[in-house]
Design a protein that fits this description.
The complex is a heterodimer of chains A (about 230) and B (about 250). Chain A is mainly alpha-helical and about 230 residues long. Chain A is built from eleven helices and no strands. Chain A has one domain. In chain A, helix 3 packs across helix 7, helix 8 (about 135-160) packs across helix 9 and helix 8 (about 135-160) runs antiparallel to helix 10 (about 180-195). Chain B has one domain (about 20-45, about 55-185, about 200-235). In chain B, helix 3 (about 55-85) crosses helix 6 (about 155-180), helix 4 (about 85-120) packs antiparallel against helix 5 (about 130-150) and helix 4 packs antiparallel against helix 7 (about 200-230).
Amino acid sequence: MIEEFDTPGVMKAMFSVAKRDLLLAWKRPGDVLNPLFFFAMVATLFPLAVGPSNEQLEFSGPGVLWTAALLATLLSLNSLFVTDFEDGSLDQMLVSSVPLPALVLGKSIAHWLTSGLPLVLISPIVAITFRMPFSVTGVLMLTLLLGTVSLSMLGSIGAALTVGLHRATALLSLLILPLSMPVLIFGARTVSLVASGDIVAGGLYFLAAYAVLVVSLAPFATAAALRISNE
Amino acid sequence: MWKFIHKLASPPHFYSLAPKLVPWLTVPGLLLIAYGVYAGLFLAPADYQQGDAFRIIYIHVPSAYLSMMAYMIMAVSAAIGLIWRIKLSHAVAAAAAPLGAWFTFLALATGSIWGRPMWGTWWEWGDPRLTSELIMLFVYFGYMALRAAIDDTAKADKASAVLALVGAVNVPIIHFSVEWWSSLHQGATLLRKDGPAMDPAMLYPLLAMILAFTFLFGALLMRRVRTEVLFRERRTRWVKEMVLSARGRS
């Protein structure tokens, strides 16, 4: 029985980390809601700044929504490892017998469920204010669904590199924004292409392929970065 | 073999070796740049479409090439430093980053100056190479900012090495996606299957300039790595002994 206690299965450990983070998010709903309000606010700023004309809103809608989603994800990434770092649970993960990339993946899954997925779910409401037709809104949700997975995973590398540093917020943006450019380009362009009646399969395939790439590689980079940050 | 590499990569050995290498890089670099500048400005004929404005390629193309080359050097030495824990290669990565950022800036600035008469605008978002070069500049900035934010050198080395490697996987994807996004820039002239599509009188100065820039980059890198090594080893005995013996001589 002791053996079983010492070495839990990799999958079990991963999901218990994810479950713990989800529970923490449930107890502190502000951490989940604030990025969502931020998303809605940024999307509100654009029509106020560029004017309310319908053609302009329809034209800029996909780009604005995608930019807002990218910034909101970035905002939520700041706290990914910080509380674990402060209360010492990060040290426990580092010394655990379970491979660190698996635990990191568990945290990323929880992060996506509490930041990416809610963004996907509220995006149609914001999209309506940009006069986006329903058929296009479906594609928007699909691109956000695939894109936010990549952003969560990429962002975890940046969060791991900057954990424990002062001035981490601005640094995290500087590290992650250039790397997330492909997601933004393909996400926003796919939606604008479908809005102008073009085909979209290529963009969606790219987003899916990119998501697969980062889901399989990023946990290892994040784990390496966490070990370096906590030496 | 390993012993040889370790001796080569030991900081004191490199410190005394670098000054011997620098002239071998500087002199050919200066000679080539003299030929390249003269031939590029006076011998090469004016382009039938672009007139004399095309001559900026003699700065632009070598800079753009080195902006990529410097990143490759940075990422490869970061990987070597991370895997085999060779201190010198971390110093190389640290020294290559600002150089790469400057060449990226130079490529952007000359591209923009060329764009003014050619496209009628200083900046063209529709051009994929300008845009991906700009993102490249931000990647360099991120790398240098991460290094600057971590006080402990050994930790900064490893953390920035991870970033450089993640960037190395991403840079080609960024380049490809920006290209797909839109295309206005003229196609590649130099690297084509059926040989360069360029008059030899225009081509030779360009090749000379690329070679010259590479040599001078190597010389600058050597000098920067030497300074970096001296700074990193400032508390070690060999530096102390060197400084003391130099003082004794004067």
